[in-house]
Amino acid sequence: MLRWILGSREAQSSVEKSSSLCAEEEQPKNCFTELQVLKGHFDIVRFLVQIDDFRCASAGDDGLVLVWNIETGEKLQELRGHSQQITAIKTFVCKSALIDQTLLITASSDRSLSLWDPDTGHRVQTISDLQSSVKCLLVLERLSLCLSGGEELCVWNKDFQLQCHLPNRSDTGIVMLIELPKNCVAAAMDKDIVIYRLIVSPNSSVMLTEMHRLFDHRDQIRALININDNMFATGSHVGELILWDATDFNILAYEHILWEESQSASEIRMGSSKPSEMSIQHLCSNGKLILAAVGCGLYVYSVLTKTVVAYRKVAHDSNVLHTMLLSDSEVMSCSEDGSVRLWEIQDLPPPAEPASAGIFGMLTFGRSSKQACPPSKKVFDVPNLKMLELIGDLIGHSGAIQMFVSFKENGLVTCSADHLLILWKNGERQSHLRSLALFQKLEENGLCEFTQESAAFK
């Protein structure tokens, strides 16, 4: 285990502050001050999935699935069976009268699906005669069903028997799936969202029917998430964020997130942004807020007020690939630049003097995809706007960080294009646990010596 001093890149003073991380309560600090490098993969590690409170599985382009103990960093199992890269991985909880067992489902470019027991490392079931590669998976534990999406949408029961399937008419195929109320699912295919309904008969047979097709995005959909039981959200390659009603599929809100530059006080538009600068790569939500990764920036949106809460136009040096809302005031992001950053949503400080527009950047908003976007709005004209303040910078990977999984007080796991996983821990908590373990051992040794001395005296 290595001890690492981590701090902000934005100001020299942040380096000095990071030496006392987690020590002061009056200011938020990055507590991830210890790291452990986990080796086992030999290609890009793209996926992490949490199995339980102390285990996770990693998968990537080498076709391997590895199971890790996040307390010790020990590699518990190697799941070998796929001959090409893993394209999707999910947990599947099988409920029984005796015990609930968590299994792993993996999909690969070798056109196969596998069901694994992470406790033993055994492959329980495999399907190897698929017509095409599976790009995404969705587990419906309530119905004991699994859906796989690609060039076709397939429904499988818990025994991996095909229940029904539908081809799709998209060149890209189905790339994302989420569950909706009333036995419905939403599938992202290129620019469209397709709503399907599952009909389960009394004899457990399953039918799949297409209900709606939503055409409101103007470019490829890059993110699809649930917000709550009543809403879901999508994000596109050109920065469109749409909130949808999960039952009648109407648009509840539409925002066009467009980073723009300003020059001096006259605010000159610099032309259209590059697609990579305004593409929404990832969305996450806690039911109250939506956090969007937009190019190399971050954008926080309120579900309740349908307004922007905070934003950071340049949060990383390269595109942001994964995000998480830790709370209503703290967020986390990782990027192609190889860093994981922690942010706090803070009130803007009162300006000491009239601020130049050049320090703010601009956002343009549109309320309907069928209408032209309204004139640009200054960010500082948006009421109650807050800022994202950097409070921690985790530097350890040498390649693009694909995603991370938080185990809360037990740590954070990141995976990267450098073939490595890194287990990040709360340094103060780990020191405390080591001290407790040492004292316990000393007490046990002291008691043992006392018992031996007493026996010799007798």
Approximately how much beta-strand content do the residues carry? over 45%
Output the CATH topology of the domain at 229-395.
Answer: Lipocalin
Helix content: under 10%
Shape call: globular
Widest beta sheet: strand line-up: 23-24-25-26-32-29-28-27
Number of strands: 35
Main sheet overview: 8 strands, mixed
Mean pLDDT: 83
Query: Count of DSSP helices?
Result: 3
Explain this structure to me?
The two termini are 45 Å apart. A hairpin with a 3-residue loop joins strand 28 (330-335) and strand 29. This protein is mainly beta and 458 residues long. The protein is globular and about 65 Å long. It has a domain at 229-395: Beta Barrel (Lipocalin). It contains 3 helices and 35 strands. 37% of the residues are buried. The protein has helices at residues 12-18, 275-278, 427-457; strands at residues 2-3, 32-38, 45-50, 55-60, 65-69, 75-79, 86-94, 101-108, 112-117, 122-127, 134-140, 145-150, 152-157, 162-167, 176-180, 184-189, 192-200, 206-214, 221-226, 231-236, 240-245, 251-256, 280-285, 289-294, 297-302, 307-312, 320-325, 330-335, 339-347, 362-363, 377-378, 386-395, 401-406, 412-416, 421-426. Strands 23-24-25-26-32-29-28-27 form an 8-stranded mixed beta sheet. The protein is 9% helix and 47% strand.
Present the secondary structure layout.
Layout: E1 2-3, H1 12-18, E2 32-38, E3 45-50, E4 55-60, E5 65-69, E6 75-79, E7 86-94, E8 101-108, E9 112-117, E10 122-127, E11 134-140, E12 145-150, E13 152-157, E14 162-167, E15 176-180, E16 184-189, E17 192-200, E18 206-214, E19 221-226, E20 231-236, E21 240-245, E22 251-256, H2 275-278, E23 280-285, E24 289-294, E25 297-302, E26 307-312, E27 320-325, E28 330-335, E29 339-347, E30 362-363, E31 377-378, E32 386-395, E33 401-406, E34 412-416, E35 421-426, H3 427-457
Parallel strand pairs: 26-32
Antiparallel strand pairs: 1-2, 2-35, 3-4, 4-5, 5-6, 7-8, 8-9, 9-10, 11-12, 12-13, 13-14, 15-16, 16-17, 17-18, 19-20, 20-21, 21-22, 23-24, 24-25, 25-26, 27-28, 28-29, 29-32, 30-31, 33-34, 34-35
